[in-house]
Amino acid sequence: TTLAHWSSLDGHGCENRVKCRARTPGNPGTHGMPASIRRFELALSSSVLLGIAVFVLAFSTRAGLSGNDILLGLLLGANAGLAPFVSRRRSSLAQWLLLAVFIGGLPFFLSNLFIYLNMGLVAILSSVQLAVHALAMGLLFTPSSRSWFASEPH
After folding, report:
1. What pLDDT digit, counting tens, does each position of 66-102 carry?
2. Which of 111, 104, 101, 98 is nearest to 69 (CA)?
3. Alpha helices (H) along 1-154
């Protein structure tokens, strides 16, 4: 092995730093992650962004915040906070907590959706958010996702 070869390696003995970084112990990254989990990340991130847009648009069309608005804002934060533990750390506990947050927040979400029905764009965005969020939850329980959660992290 030449000196040039050794100088091209990073501290983990990898030539391709981008690919290797995904395998370092402190950063599991996306190495070996099934497509369903990558799609879960995309869907849940989209749902959170849509939720923020709905929150802002709904607030701008009404005077003040309702208790449901505050609760749904907290649920958005919980979703955003738990998602990395699910997709990057393979945490089954976070997976089930995320599902519980979704199911527990559903009645509040639906009651707000009925309020939004006369707000046009807000109702549409809120409906799309619900569908995308439900898709994200479903992606956590596909066969490839279940086997990924059951396997040991690399």
Report:
1. 677 778 888 889 999 999 999 999 999 999 999 999 9
2. 111
3. 3-8, 17-21, 35-61, 67-87, 92-116, 121-139, 143-150
Q: Say whether pTM exceeds 0.85.
A: no
Task: Compute how many other C-beta atoms are within 10 angstroms of the C-beta atom of residue 139.
Answer: 21
Question: What is the chain's mean pLDDT, rounded?
Answer: 80
How long, in residues, is the chain?
Answer: 154
Given a contact cutoff of 8 angstroms between Cβ atoms, the answer to whether 28 and 22 are in contact is yes
Residues 6+ apart with CB under 8 A from 16: none
Helix 121-139 / helix 35-61 crossing angle, nearest 10 deg: 160
Label residues 104-115 b or e (16+ Cβ within 10 Å = b): ebeebbeebbeb
